[in-house]
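Figure 2 data, in text form.
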Amino acid sequence: MPKRTDIKKILIIGSGPIVIGQACEFDYSGTQACRALKEDGYEIVLVNSNPATIMTDPDVADSTYIEPMTTEILTKIIHKERPDALLPTLGGQTGLNLSVSLAEEGILKKYNVELIGAKLDAIHKAENRKQFKEAMSNIGIQVPASGNAKSIREAKEIAKEIKFPIIIRPSFTMGGIGGNVAYNIEELEEYVNFALEASPVHEVLIERSVLGWKEYELEVMRDRKDNVVIICSIENLDPMGVHTGDSITVAPAQTLTDKEYQIMRDAAIRIIREIGVETGGSNVQFAINPANGELIAIEMNPRVSRSSALASKATGFPIAKIAAKLAVGYTLDEIPNDITRYTPASFEPSIDYCVVKIPKFNFEKFPDANQTLTTHMKSVGEVMAIGRTFKESLGKAIRSLEINRYGFCEHHSKTVLNDSEKKEFIEKYLLNPSWDRIWSVVDGLRMGMNIDEIHEVTRIDKWFLYNIEQILEVEEEIKYQHKSNDLSTTSENDTESLIDPVLLKKAKQYGISDIRLANLLNASESDIRNCRWQNNIRPVFKVVDTCAAEFQAYTPYLYSTYEEECEANPTSKKKIIILGSGPNRIGQGIEFDYCCVHGVMALKEMGFEAIMVNCNPETVSTDYDISDRLYFEPLTFEDVFEIVEKEKPEGVIVQFGGQTPLKLAVPLFNAGVKILGTSPDSIDMAENRERFASLLSKLGLLQPKNGNARSFAEAKVIAASIAYPVLIRPSYVLGGRAMRVVFDEDELEEYMTHAVDVSPEHPVLIDKFLEDAIEIDVDAVCDGEDVFIGGVMEHIEEAGVHSGDSACSLPPYSVKEEVIERIKVQTRAMAIEMKVLGIINIQFAVKDDEVYVLEVNPRGSRTIPFVSKAIGIPLAKIAAQVIAGRKLKELNINNNRKNNHVAVKEAVFPFVRFHGTDTILGPEMKSTGEVMGIDTDFGKAFAKAQMAVEGGLPLAGTVFISVKDKDKATIADIAHKLHNLGFKISATGGTARAIAEKGTPVTTVLKECEGRPNVIDHLKNNDIQMVINTAEGKISQKKSYNIRRNAIISGIPYFTTVQGAIATESAIRSMINGELDVKSIQEYHI
């Protein structure tokens, strides 16, 4: 069936900002689909609020709208663009829910827009828990006993029938948000309340618990001819009860018999037919009772899902691309497989290797949060590894995580546990799933627990436990051999006697890293590498081919393993390797993958062979056809150096992937690898405090007073000489890890005692904290002679809030032009003096019109995509060209351009997922993603940014205000302006008096500790439409915590800085004075 010719223009809705449960896998799938449909001649209109994505690049779609993702804004875009069809299945739950709203509100019918890929009935059948249950009953597939509830009373009635423990699942949500397990009536009430708030349709499923059952997923595709293929089976290592996004997963499924797999496969095919997904991909989740083999269907996503990215990368089968083509009329047998070129997409992928995914968590950012893993997803990213066996893949995945664990390192010193110790160990480490439970499983095995005992407690399948035990047995054999050998004669150049070569090869085939082997043998990593090389134990590279080597693969998508035949076949072309950014985490997210992809594009355009190395399955950079060659490998020295040795590139680029490749720059340089771009010496100049201070002194530039402390005694002296408040942090950190503003000696002592490990090797850095300063971010590109300044951004929050968490405006909205010019002059001076080649990011603070240099990062920054979209010039692409030898003068960039618009970047936070975590912003970064608002003035742009985060700002109602003493004078002015805009003002005692003194009518509201009804009651009763709340000091923050928490849960816009409140008033005024318009990025940069 050929493609449809009655459709010319297709609207695709993206997934919005990166949040827990919906990350950059939807950028990957959306980008792939846009490219596939453009290839077929369709005109693409894309809507997404996230500027950090590749899909919002102006050349991916024909018209790209970086606008708030609300039905109101989408209606305006549909009215303007008049698309023929809407493809709803590529933007995660956000895109799906918006598509449903547009259909149900009659917008699609009004403008004659057809839903393709998944019809409304099919979406409802899969997403509505009651309809899904009825559909499964129709085809004889069991689901857990359950009932739908729209209130606590209904939930309690259902609970009486199905008994505790009970699973609570909100309808139309993603990442298990609002989901939980209730073991008693009290927990049921608490969790159902939260779940009803989380569900956009205010409905929850109360479901029989199948905790401890084995969990599986199948990725399924269907076309109009009713051809159905299973792309991949995925098995969770953790049993039911842990969200699949938080579980270690394995592909293909390892513990199913062929008969069990066929039963599950048949069930998945029956489900996709019954639900009615005619064209495209779906994800079906099953649970199996290990005691008797009973199979039940858990849920189905009638869209490209989080697991679709994993399945695509695991098999080489481009699910999003094929789904897009099926949606416009093709059938599976008409679409060729890009990798083999000869087999059609109707051939089910077959793989002769094993893939392991491990989630990445950032609990250290939220120390007060409950770290137990449940049905409510908490991970911020993931890594994937490919190997010939589960053991090899597991080892590679562990060392990809970047958590300083390179294998099954020991945690407990005990070798044998007595009965009481065993009971305590089980209760503390094994009973409740945690992010690091797999290391506790290993500890248990080391301390004498057997597989049966661990299985009984964790319900992890014995097959996985047996494989883990085999890895430990090899480690014990290595340790035993080491003890029995006399190593005193081993020299650096003769390491053959370090370990028996047969045992060494076995260890490498089991996925044991060089660093772990060095630890076991009391040697260095280089000793192990020398031993391997002397014994010719080197990895070979195999091709991911979708067909278990039955057909030749034409796309070089490679992974390493310890076998004989190598399939890498390096070319003799001029080539450059780009190191990726590894797993998403707070502080290093999709923005760095964006830089890597632009780097690859630029190098390919210049005629280089671009080679990508990365281990993140969610990203565009790890798509099989982005780079010329893709190595899906851990970003460790061991793995990268082997690739460099195999490929022999012109050099390696480390500046696009954030801190991950930057950490490898010096080891690679010392090993003789050419680092392209800014030299490791210049990078060190920025990182080393003494060298950086000398640089600034030479250039006559200011920086806040500072010092390095290697003990509490030193810290006291330095802080006193600088004068409080001071900003204190560990050296060499990312995302402001453990950074804090300290106001007195008691706080300093508490920080030094509890927050960090301080030592001569790991000093803490102490800087004078510039109160009430304005922070400025600058992104620029330098070729060693000239500097192109891409953007000067003003932070909306005051200095002290991490740059990644602060909203920012480009161009600046309150800083004098003369000060901005000085900042540009200083940027050029530093870039030239540091011999930067490529991107440089500099953070400044402006206080009383003086400019201070806070930090220099000679690498790709978090703001590069935002600046590039705002100015219409791809900075990372320019930087790659400069690194590869071009000069800025050759690129004809207009240095004096003026934009007639304002762009505002706003951060998105995961606080709703971490109960017990405060929302007060500080120097430690906590945001997971960002949105962008763009319009003709600052007020409108800021309003759009707020709409993109929370759905909008109120234009009427009551604003509640409670602020610290130093903010009261300023807040009284804001309250007066809000009153003039028609708002009612309520405030706590002291704040209310300050507002009243200005002549503004205000209602005094009780604090939580002052009686009832208080501010919390008013929030719960929806009496308040916006909250402005600032707090200083731990006691004040603790007392006002519930105000901020209840605002989050109720979806009420809240602001925790005065600067944020000022910007908000400006935004509301702009919205009241004129309607917001929509405009594509292409139109802004004509």
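Caption note: The chain is about 35% helix and 20% strand.
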